[in-house]
Design a protein that fits this description.
Number of domains: 2
CATH architecture of the largest domain: 3-Layer(aba) Sandwich
Largest sheet: 6 strands, parallel
CATH class of the largest domain: Alpha Beta
Structural class: alpha/beta
Strand content: 15-25%
CATH topology of the largest domain: Rossmann fold
Number of helices: 13
Order of helices and strands: EHEHEHHEHEHHEHHEHEHEHEH
Number of strands: 10
Length: 274
């Protein structure tokens, strides 16, 4: 049972930064990852549509006999985590709670910034969770939708990226934040530009790294850690042709991916997809 894989999903490529964080912390865990590349991005879509897609994504993972689900997508974590929990039948880890907990531990000025997709920011999921953990914390949130295409283009040190980062983040620095949650799994790719924009006194919280720490805690709590020291089996599935996913994904993952499988029409239909 402990050798069963951890199932992870995202709307596309961004969740691979969470895979990277997880494999660094838990180098022997087997992983099945699904990127819904046919319907990316989820960020601008309505909560009702995101909840529908989340149900499909879980259904794609379940036949792989997974022992846990990691929702490697802040948008789904913000508006559809309950859908995943209802369907999965195994422990579920999202991005919001771990990131919120890490930010509350980090802040000394009680002023936290949050950046993410339009859907994540509009949901107020981070703000609500942070205030539940620490009611006296001031939360300032801003959507940064242009960060996603910049990350996928590989423009990590491009002048346009630094200019856009300053435009997005300067208002947050005026609020006196000392902690900033990277509330989208694409954003760690642009970490250097974000750090430069907010300055050295602001600590960045990678929600994927925080989630990986929670995954480790839950595996130990449930006695599900893989005892093997063999090289893990990492499997990657997508809902559209894999070419671009592989090209860009290896940059996000930080290693070669091997073969990426496209979910077939029958599998997708069986999972409720279109």
């Amino acid at each position: 049972m402990n050798s069963r894989p951890i199932g992870m999903f995202d709307s596309g490529i961004g969740g691979l930064t969470v895979v990277r964080a997880l494999t660094q912390r838990l180098p022997h865990e087997n992983i099945v990852y699904f990127g819904d590349t046919a319907r990316v991005p989820y960020g601008p879509k309505s909560p009702a549509v995101v909840r529908e897609y989340a149900a499909h994504d879980v259904a794609v993972l379940l036949p792989h006999n997974i022992k846990m689900v990691v929702v490697a997508c802040n948008t789904v974590s913000a508006v559809a985590l309950d859908v995943v929990q209802k369907l999965a039948g195994v422990p579920v880890v999202g991005m919001i709670l771990p990131g919120a907990q890490a930010s509350v531990t980090s802040t000394t000025k009680k002023t936290i910034g949050v950046i993410g997709t339009i859907a994540t920011v509009s949901s107020n999921a981070y703000s609500h969770t942070i205030r539940q953990l620490s009611p006296d914390v001031h939360v300032v949130a801003r959507a940064c939708p242009l960060f996603v295409p910049l990350a996928e283009e590989g423009w990590t040190d491009h002048p346009a990226t630094h200019l856009i980062a300053r435009e997005y983040l300067f208002p947050l620095t005026l609020e006196g934040i000392d902690t900033l949650i990277l509330g989208c799994t694409h954003y760690p790719v642009l970490r250097a530009a974000i750090e430069r924009a907010v300055g050295p006194t602001v600590r960045l919280i990678d929600s994927g790294e925080a989630a990986a720490a929670q995954v480790e805690e839950l595996l130990d709590h449930h006695g599900l850690r893989n005892p093997s020291t063999d090289r893990p089996n990492l499997q990657f599935f997508v809902s559209d042709i894999p070419a671009k996913f592989t090209e860009v994904g290896e940059r996000f993952l930080g290693q070669k991916m091997g073969r990426v499988h496209r979910v077939t029409g029958e599998q997708w239909a069986g999972a409720g997809g279109g």
